[in-house]
């Protein structure tokens, strides 16, 4: 099911909701999907987003939105000299947004004359925007763009010892220390400060929307809503899996044209999301593994965090002659693909994925088996959700992006074959996909959650 993004007509008894996404496609995409879902419920939505974006993909997505849906939100200049030169540009932009909350009230006064029902802010900007919204007398909700498991970790983080060998959250979730987002191992890291401050601020929000569904993370959602994770946490609304909001492309990309020629459920799709790079040495092992597996594959290569920095041709990364050698068996591309279209293509059987949360929910909705290879951040926590639900396999010894060592080709090839051949996984993903479809059906959990959210903003 997909919803279309058209601004609702507005009017006196139509609630007006402002959405404030943070940097990166992994944050912007769920906000755009949320905008579509709210618009479909006749809520008047405006997206506040900085139009000078970090990546070209964000720019393209923003420029595809109807112009009256979008307002260019100002970001206060960030003194880059305060951060290590190697800092992730997406992370710096998130921090820039978090430090721009004082601009909210003047911006709203200049932009809106009628009352605002609610602001929904990205988790990474929660600690500064929740108080700023309160000062402007606007109820503030948070969209949590990762799993409910990560939400439990984030909201409980002010009360946890993150150095324990296993982080036990209310007895319902146990996260081994090696699965934590790596910066959390350093209590002085800015990510840790942000994470804990945002987690603490959640208690002051009017509600938390999370892009998951009850059958995927039942215990954690129940524990969050029954005060077991943190007493006094506001209601958590499971509104996922947020369905795609974008129009289907009118022209077929080379990736889709290639998939059209492949047999039913025969292809492994390989992609590590919008901002996860891979070293050339690891790419060569991955290339060798895919070739050795004998499976058909569609591989999206990414050598830099920010797409605007990508230079050089594919051969430079995967080895001269590779692309030609695998022709017919595998297609290697270096540009953005419409992942939701790829995952719902009849030829796709499996997804070698970094387990960014959007990718996980998209695979769940499409009924595609996942071979989980988390590379950074929240991805090991998400990979555990994948493995627990039988949505795929997770070889948990495979290294992080920044760790020394490589996952070798033979190992990759073995796991790719296992995922493609495992008949039990096929059964479980079909069940998960049916549950995902039921969650977003008219009487499903997502619509019920939206109805509760609406009740709250109309009070
Ligand atoms: N995506 C896409 N095409 C690409 C790469 C990514 O459509 O070539 C989309 C993907 O479908 C997902 C989002 O970008 O919706 C990436 O979010 P995710 O949480 O999976 O990972 P992140 O990029 O934040 O690490
Ligand atoms: N996150 C969080 N609290 C924060 C910042 C992030 O819980 O203060 C979550 C958020 O949902 C994010 C995840 O941690 O998806 C990992 O963050 P990271 O910056 O590594 O990845 P990103 O989301 O930026 O792709």
Q: Gap between N and C termini, in Å?
A: 30 Å
**Uncertain parts:** 7-12
- Provide the helix percentage: 25-40%
Number of DSSP helical runs:
18
Rounded to the nearest angstrom, the radius of gyration is 21 Å
CATH architecture of the largest domain: 3-Layer(aba) Sandwich
Give the strand order, joined by hyphens, for the main sheet: 3-2-1-4-5-8-9
Ions, cofactors and other ligands present here are: uridine-5'-diphosphate
Overall body shape? globular
**Beta-strand percentage?**
5-15%
Protein name: Glycosyltransferase
GO molecular function, one term: UDP-glucosyltransferase activity
Organism: Platanthera zijinensis
InterPro entries: UDP-glycosyltransf_plant, UDP_glucos_trans, UDP_glycos_trans_CS
Explain the layout of strands and helices.
Elements: E1 16-20, H1 25-40, E2 44-49, H2 56-63, E3 70-72, H3 89-98, H4 104-111, E4 118-122, H5 126-135, E5 140-144, H6 148-156, E6 166-169, E7 173-176, H7 190-201, E8 207-210, H8 218-225, E9 236-238, H9 254-260, E10 267-271, H10 280-293, E11 296-300, H11 314-318, H12 322-325, E12 330-333, H13 339-343, E13 348-353, H14 357-366, E14 369-372, H15 379-388, E15 392-393, H16 409-421, H17 423-440, H18 445-458
Parallel strand pairs: 1-2, 1-4, 2-3, 4-5, 5-8, 8-9, 10-11, 10-13, 11-12, 13-14, 14-15
Antiparallel strand pairs: 6-7
Helix pairs in contact: 5-7, 6-7, 10-16, 14-17
Family: Belongs to the UDP-glycosyltransferase family.
GO molecular function: UDP-glucosyltransferase activity
Enzyme class: transferase
């Amino acid at each position: 099911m997909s919803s279309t993004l058209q601004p609702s007509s507005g009017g006196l008894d139509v609630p007006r909701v402002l959405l404030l996404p943070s940097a990166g496609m992994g944050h912007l995409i769920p906000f755009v999907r949320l905008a579509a879902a709210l618009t479909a419920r006749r809520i008047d939505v405006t997206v506040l987003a900085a139009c000078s974006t970090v990546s070209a993909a964000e720019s393209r997505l923003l420029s595809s939105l109807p112009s009256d849906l979008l307002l260019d939100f100002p970001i206060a200049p960030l003194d880059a000299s305060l951060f290590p030169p190697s800092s992730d540009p997406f992370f710096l932009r998130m921090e820039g947004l978090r430090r721009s909350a004082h601009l909210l009230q003047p911006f709203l006064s200049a932009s809106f004359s009628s009352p605002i029902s609610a602001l929904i802010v990205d988790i990474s900007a929660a600690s500064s925007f929740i108080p700023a919204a309160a000062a402007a007398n606007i109820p503030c909700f948070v969209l949590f763009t990762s799993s409910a498991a990560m939400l439990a970790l984030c909201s409980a983080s002010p009360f946890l010892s993150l150095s324990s060998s296993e982080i036990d959250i209310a007895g319902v979730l146990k996260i081994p220390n090696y699965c934590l987002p790596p910066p959390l191992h350093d209590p002085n890291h800015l990510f840790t400060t942000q994470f804990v401050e945002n987690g603490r601020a959640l208690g002051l929000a009017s509600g938390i929307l999370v892009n998951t569904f009850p059958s995927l993370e039942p215990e954690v959602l129940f524990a969050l809503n029954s005060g077991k994770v943190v007493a006094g946490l506001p209601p958590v609304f499971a509104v996922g899996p947020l369905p795609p909001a974008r129009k289907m492309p009118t022209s077929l990309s080379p990736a889709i044209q290639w998939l059209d020629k492949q047999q039913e459920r025969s292809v492994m799709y390989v992609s590590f999301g919008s901002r996860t790079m891979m070293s050339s040495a690891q790419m060569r092992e991955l290339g060798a593994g895919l070739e050795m597996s004998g499976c058909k594959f569609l591989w999206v290569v990414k050598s830099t965090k920010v797409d605007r920095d990508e230079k050089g041709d594919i051969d430079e990364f995967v080895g001269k002659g590779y692309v030609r050698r695998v022709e017919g068996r595998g297609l290697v591309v270096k540009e953005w693909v419409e992942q939701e279209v790829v995952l719902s293509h009849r030829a796709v059987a499996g997804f070698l994925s970094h387990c960014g949360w959007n990718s996980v929910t998209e695979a769940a909705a499409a009924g595609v088996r996942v071979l989980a290879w988390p590379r950074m951040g929240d991805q090991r926590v998400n990979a555990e959700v994948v493995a627990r639900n039988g949505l795929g396999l997770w070889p948990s010894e495979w290294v992080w992006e920044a760790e020394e060592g490589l996952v070798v080709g033979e190992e990759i090839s073995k796991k790719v074959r296992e995922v493609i051949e495992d008949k039990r996984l096929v059964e479980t993903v079909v069940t998960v996909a049916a549950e995902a479809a039921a969650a977003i059906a008219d009487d499903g959990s997502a619509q019920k959650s939206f109805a509760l959210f609406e009740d709250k903003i109309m009070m």
